[in-house]
Amino acid sequence: MDQPTEREKMLRGELYRAFTPDLIAARSRCTRACRRFNSLEDVSRRRQVELWKE
Fold first, then answer.
1. Angle between the 45-53 and 21-38 helix axes, to the nearest 10 degrees?
2. Domain ranges of the chain
């Protein structure tokens, strides 16, 4: 049986190493998405949803 990835451990609520390359990249992507979303001003709800899904 393969060892679970740190992401799998995290999703199961187990102890995990938070600073693996894939988790760092995921946090960075999330940060960029949140900043982009929060900087929106007069954008339709539909466009907000589209941007959030990117």
1. 170
2. 6-53
